[in-house]
Design brief:
- The chain has an 8-stranded mixed β-sheet with strand order 9-10-12-11-15-16-17-18, with helices on both faces.
- It is globular.
- The longest helix has 19 residues.
- The chain folds into 2 domains: 96 residues, Immunoglobulin-like (Sandwich); 247 residues, Alpha/Beta hydrolase fold, catalytic domain (Rossmann fold), CATH 3.40.50.1820.
- Helix 6 links the parallel strand 15 and strand 16.
- It starts with 18 loop residues before the first helix and ends in a 6-residue tail after the last helix.
- By secondary structure, the chain is of the alpha/beta class.
- 26% of the residues lie in helices and 22% in strands.
Length: 419
């Protein structure tokens, strides 16, 4: 069955969040902004509102008997506010087989990325997976002063634009032992070749196919663009990024225990994946590139299951890891294992630096759980510069939301060096 709407992950559990949590999250964002840890990209670049005309041509559907304008309606759904996948925005009939809506976006996606969306036919009796345009999500670029989207309903989606910024190298697959072998991508900072004596800290990111390029998920984190910009502006120290892609064993590799999922019990391969990442891949990266190999200069990061994997590696592999990005973590895994693990594990010394975040639109009561995890870390001595906690009032469980927080993550991990 074709997956439409959001790019679904094995660990997705999403429900609308309340307005109270979003209000508190906005206050938290203001406090972090004052500390320089929250910035959704270059000032003003993505904050400009824009109105987009969306038009769907239903004439072919009507001629084929799949659409009756006297009975059916058309709506627009998507993955960036004000669009949503769980509710539709109605299009108005134009009298000629076309349906149209004007949509005002109060801001644009981080990095100028496209908005994923689809048209859907609405009819009494249709199920939630019926009526959608077939195939992949369609990208809508919000470029220019008055962008528009017009197409025949059901036409093939254009591929998400592919872009790489700076120097990105591909390393062929390495033997993996208890994990699947795979190629990895390495981003090198500006000036790497010009300063042959300099060595650099390294950030290893899970789900690396979504870190630099939108082709896999229809959107990306934009780490290469953000890193290039921040390094050149002197807002962070230069560093190296290693993007490690996931595959068919993602759920197994990124979970430390077996956990329930849709009446199945899967997972538990993180120790083996972590051994490959830190004991096989990391030494090879250290051999090939001018890294600072010490734990204090090695960070891991990821979202969702990749978030709980990063936290687990920081707690249990502090011999290799000195910092972690715990982004929108799957806090519910195995009976809220992340929180239980923090409480039960003697804290490493020194404590790894942790960035923990969550979006307001990632689940009913989600801030209650993310705050409980934050409080468990605080009770174990994480404080001050060792722990950054972020609540994104507009955040969802998707790449566009994580891209909006990348600047803050990189500022936290790699603050400028003292002159």
């Amino acid at each position: 069955m074709t997956v439409h709407r959001e790019t679904l992950r094995d660990d997705d559990r999403r429900h609308p969040a309340g307005a109270v949590g979003a209000g508190l999250a906005r206050a938290a964002v203001r406090a972090l902004a004052a500390l320089g840890l929250w910035a959704a990209g270059p000032a003003g670049a993505w904050a400009q509102p824009v109105t987009v005309r969306f038009e769907a041509d239903l004439r072919a559907e009507a001629a084929a008997g799949r659409f009756d304008p006297a009975r059916d309606r058309v709506e627009l759904r998507g993955g960036f506010p004000p669009l949503a996948w769980d509710r539709g925005l109605a299009l108005a009939p134009q009298g000629d087989g076309r349906w149209r809506a004007e949509v005002r976006f109060e801001r644009r996606p981080a990095g100028g990325q496209p908005v994923p969306h689809k048209f859907r036919i609405v009819r009494a009796g249709l199920g939630p997976d019926e009526g959608w345009e077939p195939g992949a999500n369609h990208p809508a670029l919000l470029d220019g002063a008055a962008p528009s989207v017009a197409r025949v309903f059901g036409s093939a989606a254009a591929p998400a634009p592919s872009r790489l910024t700076g120097t990105v190298l591909t390393l062929e697959a390495l033997p993996a032992g208890h994990a699947l072998a795979r190629p990895v991508w390495v981003w090198l900072p500006p000036g790497y070749d010009a300063e042959p004596q300099r060595r650099y800290p390294v950030l290893y990111l899970h789900d690396g196919q979504n870190v630099f390029d939108a082709r896999a998920a229809g959107a990306e984190w934009g780490v290469d663009e953000a890193a290039q910009r921040l390094v050149l502006a002197g807002e962070v120290q230069p560093f190296i990024v290693v993007a490690v892609p996931s595959g068919r064993d993602r759920l197994h590799e990124l979970t430390p225990t077996r956990g329930g999922l849709h009446a199945r019990f899967l997972g538990g391969g993180l120790a083996g994946y972590g051994a490959w990442l830190l004991d096989a891949l990391k030494p090879e990266i250290d051999r090939r590139f001018r890294t600072r190999p010490e734990p204090a200069h090695t960070a891991v990061g990821g979202s969702s299951l990749g978030g709980i994997a990063s936290l687990w590696l920081a707690l249990h592999r502090a011999d290799r890891v000195g910092a972690a990005l715990v982004v929108s973590p799957s806090v519910w895994w195995d009976g809220f294992l992340p929180r239980r693990d923090v409480r039960a594990t003697p804290p490493p010394e020194p404590r790894p630096r942790l960035w923990l975040d969550m979006g307001a639109n990632e689940g009913e009561g989600i801030f209650t759980e993310s705050r409980a995890l934050r409080d468990a870390l605080a009770a174990q001595g994480w404080a001050g510069s060792r722990l950054a906690y972020v609540e994104d009032p507009d955040g969802r469980h998707d790449e566009l939301s994580w891209a909006a927080r990348v600047d803050g993550m990189l500022r936290f991990l790699f603050p400028p060096l003292a002159p």
